[in-house]
Amino acid sequence: MSFGGFLENSTGGGGARIVADIPYSNGVGNNHNMPSGALAQPRLVTPPLTKSMFNSSPGLSLGLVRHTFSHLDLTSLSASFIVLSFGSKTDLLSVCGAGVRMLISLGYFFEQQPNIDGQGDVARMAENFEATIGRRSRDEEHESRSGSENMDGASGDDQDAADNPPRKKRYHRHTPQQIQELEALFKECPHPDEKQRLELSKRLCLETRQVKFWFQNRRTQMKTQLERHENSLLRQENDKLRAENMSIRDAMRNPICSNCGGPAIIGEISLEEQHLRIENARLKDELDRVCALAGKFLGRPISSLANSIGPPLPSSSLELGVGSNGFGGLSAVATTLPLGPDFGVGISSALSVVPPGRPAAGVTGLDRSIERSMFLELALAAMDELVKMAQTDEPLWVRSLEGGREMLNHEEYMRTFTPCIGLKPNGFVTEASRETGMVIINSMALVETLMDSNRWAEMFPCMIARTSTTDVISSGMGGTRNGSLQLMHAELQVLSPLVPVREVNFLRFCKQHAEGVWAVVDVSIDSIRENSSAPTFVCCRRLPSGCVVQDMPNGYSKVTWVEHAEYDESQVHQLYRPLLSSGMGFGAQRWIATLQRQCECLAILMSSAVHTRDHTDAESPNKIYLPPALAITASGRRSMLKLAQRMTDNFCAGVCASTVHKWNKLNAGNVDEDVRVMTRKSVDDPGEPPGIVLSAATSVWLPVSPQRLFDFLRDERLRSEWDILSNGGPMQEMAHIAKGQDHGNCVSLLRAGAMNANQSSMLILQETCIDAAGSLVVYAPVDIPAMHLVMNGGDSAYVALLPSGFAIVPDGPGSRGPGTTANCNNSSNGAVGEGPTRVSGSLLTVAFQILVNSLPTAKLTVESVETVNNLISCTVQKIKAALQCES
DNA sequence: TGACTAATCCCCC
DNA sequence: GGGGGATTAGTCA
Fold first, then answer.
1. Does nucleic acid strand C have an atom less than 7 angstroms from the CB of A156?
2. pLDDT tens digit string along A804-850?
3. In a 3-state reduction of DSSP, which class is residue A847?
4. Is the CB atom of residue A134 positioned under 7 angstroms from any atom of strand B?
């Protein structure tokens, strides 16, 4: 590069050119920052160029051109030239001589530094020039630029021509040749040292700074390119995932009901779900990392599938299927699944659910993944609904005129909520109830109980025939139950043969809403999970139901329970329909009442003040004779309670024909059609006598209040009025373990008056309980030696017993109070008690389990059936007579 | 308007 | 002091 070329270029643009020699001189007022003692001063020779000059000559540009310097004496004086070019490419550019400060302000310029060292080294001069001029303040730059902007007649070509560095912002590029060389070196060495850079700068006539910057920028560029490449790869992947996500979402948005082929409705994806998904992805990564580490440690690869780590949990929370294969943990479930295809008769066939964790043929990982996403959506929608249902009063809930109970305003409900499990099946009726109560348990403990199927069943023994957790979709976050989501199966019961067991498959989702505030929601999943190979008939669907629990300062919790279900009412005997529709059967009142009673029992048992009345001491010698060894120890109390619990569980199972036992229904002609008789074989169970067990149960309506009925039946002194085991006389209470503040909640040991030696060896274990929703009297004959063991803390599992007893519930608001079903002397729509003067009555279930043959292989005889049928009829008649309610 | 490039500023090792 | 990220500014397609 040469300045000659530049000059040529500038001249090549054509146009008039004025070159004026400008000797430097002192005393020019335009000087800026003129150092004292300057050797030379710029001397302005051109007349002052005015704005008007430029305005009137748009093509004018002013250039201070550094020319070839060979003929100039730069040591004494820098020569400068002003080139005025009209319409040419000439540019205002440079000044010769080092250290020259130039002001370009409408042609007035120059300030010269004293030490001129311009020995022909153009580049150096330019550098020095820049060092002083190029770093001027922005204002100055702007000012100077605005000066040239005023000369905007300068063509682009003129500016191109200025391949000189004096003006900092002057655009230029390194020549292709220079770049080629720089690139070549960059390929070999992206980080040249100073020596290499110096060498290159000389060779390419560039400053070392330029070379340095070039390399720096080149490296940055490489990095940017690399990032861009990576970005594009990631974007591609992202697009792919997004497309996949869209298609999945689409599938979820427009689910097709496999029942009717119409659209099924699922709620929107919420923020919580997004969080859960993120959390899930994070956990999955964590699992992968842990597996990788474990693999290194064990020296063999570890699969991240749930069945390869830890205990055989039904599933892992880590396979929620965000881009995962969705098959994690499947094999772990299959072996623990309690339900088999041949389980039970008639009832399990109503299962509409694919046995969880065991994929049906053809179910792909994607299907599972979609299914899980749908579960999640459903759970979140259900939670939302539950909380609103629990917290909203009118107009969603209105007080009924009779009884003051809250009733769901269905119109308002339909307006407020989207049906999250689809529309109500034809022929189904709705049952909705809400109840709030104070319970002596804290929220965390209650949540733990609800989320553990065993503990849940223990908490609601007479309501839950059996239950299991069939799949854990999420086990919660941060070691808590918050976010826990699981699939459950349950058989819910009302203690009567006239009410079929409700078999439900539902999601249970737990969420912490605030400190000390939790909610657990259940919602049926039958709308999502359909197994084409199983009948799709479902007798009950649970709409979002559950509880909101809030800790109270006194150790209690405020529990608001919402129970909302749709069921096939035709399966329910008319006698029980009012009860069910009032919510006292399967509804919130019963859940709350049971919860309160059970928690009170737990609190009493855990406190030191366990109230035990023992009548074996010397203070009551006149009451009964009993060996002193029957005194109860603390562990004995526990054993006795455990035995009583088993007895009551078995009683319920017999009444409701739940699948806990494999009952065979009997349809013998001699049996009253309203008495349900069933048999089963008892083999290898030390808890009951071996042989053929016959169960007979019936339910009748009595025009007596539940409380009166309960008090009558549990009173050992009145036992002879209905119990053949009483031998016609009163019974005595030998031991009493209180289970609640109400004396009606207790376990006791009764002894009949001894008629002969044989019977004197028998005791009666009895459990009674009562709460707002109903009451229970269950008893079973047990023998003295066995109870002796139990009362000393022995294992109650070996005490053989068969329970009998009564379940009492109010007949329900609006009940028409029909005649009994046992007597069958009235249709179910009978008019007994009808009208405003009707007496509030009770529904009494009577049930017996007796051993009809000690050989399991024996055949059931007609006599046995008739005997039990008579027994049950007689008992009912006796009760009616005693209570003077037989018409 | 965005990509490209030369150059600058500034932080941190 | 230099590397490198962030930024600026000029240019071009």
1. yes
2. 999 999 887 665 554 433 333 333 333 333 333 445 789 999 999 88
3. strand
4. yes
Strand C within 7 A of A223 CB: yes
- A574 and A642 in a single domain? The answer is no
First to last CA, chain A: 128
Tokens of residue A491, six digits = 């058989």
A720-732 residue pLDDT tens: 888 877 777 778 8
Closest CA to the C1' of C9: that residue is A169
Measure A204 CA to C5 C1' (Å).
28
Q: Would A761 be classed as within a structural domain?
A: yes
With a cut of 50, say whether residue A325 has pLDDT above it. no
Q: For residues A31 and A388, what is the distance between their CA atoms, to the nearest angstrom?
A: 82
Which DSSP helix (H) or strand (E) runs through A507? strand A502-514
Nucleotide nearest to A219 (CA to C1'): C4
Token pair for A41? 């001063």
Query: How far apart are the C-alpha atoms of A420 and A541, rounded to whole Å?
Result: 12
Q: Which residues constitute the domain of residue A131?
A: 3-172
Nearest nucleotide to the CA of A174, by C1', is B6
| A218 Cβ contacts chain C strand, under 7 Å | no
For residues A399 and A544, membership in a common domain is answered with: yes
Whole-number pLDDT of residue A689: 84
Whether any strand C atom is under 7 angstroms from the Cβ of A685: the reply reads no
Q: Tell me whether the omega of the peptide bond preceding residue A544 falls within 30 degrees of 0, making it cis.
A: no
C-beta within 7 A of nucleic chain C, residues 783-842 of A: none
A751 near A726, Cβ under 8 Å?
A: no
Can you say whether residue A65 is alpha, beta or left, with left for phi > 0 and alpha for psi between -120 and 50 degrees?
Answer: beta
A117 touches strand B (CB under 7 A): no
Contact A462, A648 (CB under 8 A): yes
Structure token pair of residue A225: 């390119």
Distances (CA, A) of A201 to A118, A170, A210: 20, 20, 8
Task: Annotate A839-850 with b (16+ C-beta within 10 A) or e (fewer).
Answer: eebbbbbbbbbb
Q: Is A403 exposed, middle or buried (0-12, 13-18, 19+ CB in 10 A)?
A: middle
Do residues A526 and A485 share a domain? yes
Minimal CA–CA distance to A25: which of A46, A45, A5?
A45
Q: Find the range with the poorest average confidence among A382-386, A475-479, A568-572, A700-704.
A: A475-479
Enclosing H/E stretch for A846:
strand A842-853
For residue A222, is it within any domain?
Answer: no
CB A358 under 7 Å to nucleic chain C: no
Phi, psi dihedral angles at A64 (to 5 degrees): -110, 110
Answer whether any strand C atom is within 7 A of the Cβ of A137: no
Does any strand C atom come closer than 7 Å to the Cβ of A169? yes
Q: What was the pLDDT predicted at A561? A: 95
A159 strand C contact, CB < 7 Å: yes
Per-residue model confidence as pLDDT tens digits over A392-446: 888 889 887 766 788 898 888 988 888 878 778 888 888 999 999 999 999 999 9
Q: Is the CB of A183 under 7 A from strand C?
A: no
What CATH number has the domain bearing residue A787? 3.30.530.20
Stated in angstroms, how far is A134 CA from B3 C1'?
A: 27
**A576 Ramachandran zone, left/alpha/beta (phi>0; psi -120 to 50):** alpha
